Amino acid sequence: MTELPTSTERKLGLVIDLDTCVGCHACVVSCKGWNTENYGAPLSDQDAYGSNPTGTFLNRVHSYEIKPDQGVAKLVHFPKSCLHCEDAPCVTVCPTGASYKRSEDGIVLVNEDACIGCGLCAWACPYGARELDATEGVMKKCTLCVDRIYNENLPEEDRQPACVRTCPSGARHFGDLGDPNSEVSQLVEKRGGFDLMPEQGTRPVNKYLPPRPKDVEPEFDILAPYLEPVADDPKGWLGWLDKTLSALPGGDR
Questions:
Q1: For the chain, what is the HEC assignment?
Q2: Any residues with CB less than 8 A from the CB of 200 and at least 6 apart, and which?
Q3: Which phi and psi angles does 184 have, rounded to 5°?
Q4: pLDDT over 60 (residue 218)
Q5: Strand bridging mode 131-132 / 207-209
Q6: What's the pLDDT band for 244 if we cut at 50, 70, 90?
Q7: How confident is the model over 171-183, as pLDDT tens digits?
Q8: How confident is the model at residue 73 (pLDDT cuts 50, 70, 90)?
Q9: Which of 34, 24, 96 is nearest to 61 (CA)?
Q10: Dihedrals phi, psi of 31, to nearest 5 degrees
């Protein structure tokens, strides 16, 4: 069995803002692309263009329709990947030492050369964050793009996980959550960031920022598309546009 480090120099991880995630899956696509071409064995797909496609993904986005006790109903998009737990049960259960947690930055990784595909780590993970690649027969998981964040051949702005770099809504943040003065730690403090399933006792490094409350019911009239225009004789720019269009052949019909 693999032992966890007693402490880590840093706690690199993600902070995900559930208020601004739009569920576009750009993070899923970029993660699949980067990790298929770089670290470890490719992320395979089975029957990709058939009637029952399956595949290996390190990051997935789940969407939930919720109705809180107060406020309006909302659609929440919930991205989920490995949370790089401080007390990672996937590491301690591994019989070959393939799963391990790095002492220098706290990232949980899999040595695929030592992985026998037994699946014990997947059973131990309470978040369902590990996937056995059907083609390679090894366990796959989020690496925080470890081959990217330390790559000095990349521009400084690209030395962050692919999912963070590609997020169009700025919902994903990366940094050292062990440093209380870091940007991600300050964000967690300000927005009341929380652990996923804290009752499991795994102490995940990744944090989530809750959706902001929306207490005002939207006001709209379902008959609005059928209402008469407010002005029968539009003026200004709209008036000019109306006259211009009317002067075109067939514009008076």
A1: CCCCCCCCCCCEEEEEECCCCCCCCHHHHHHHHHHHHCCCCCCCEECCCCCCCEECCCCEEEEEEECCCCCCCEEEEEEECCCCCCCCHHHHCCCCCCEEECCCCCCEEECCCCCCCCCHHHHHCCCCCCEECCCCCCEECCCCCHHHHCCCCCCHHHCCCHHHHHCCCCCEEEEECCCCCCHHHHHHHHHCCECCCHHHCCCCCCEEECCCCCCCCCCCCCCHHHCCCCCCCCCHHHHHHHHHHHHCCCCCC
A2: 126
A3: -70, -40
A4: no
A5: unpaired
A6: confident
A7: 999 999 999 999 9
A8: confident
A9: 24
A10: -65, -45
Place of tokens 């993904």: 57
Between the two ends of the chain, the Cα-to-Cα distance in Å is 81
Residues in CB range of 156: below 8 A, 6 or more apart? none
Sequence-distant (6+) residues with CB within 8 A of 54 are: 45, 46, 47, 134
Question: What does the alpha-carbon distance between residue 17 and residue 220 come to, in Å, rounded to a whole number?
Answer: 28
Residue 189 structure tokens: 């403090």
Q: Which amino acid is at 83?
A: L
The C-alpha atoms of residue 152 and residue 131 are separated, in whole angstroms, by 29
Contact 58, 141 (CB under 8 A): yes
Inform me whether the pLDDT recorded for 37 exceeds 90. Answer: no
Residue 203: Cβ within 10 Å count = 13
Q: Report the predicted TM-score, pTM, of the whole model to 2 decimal places.
A: 0.82
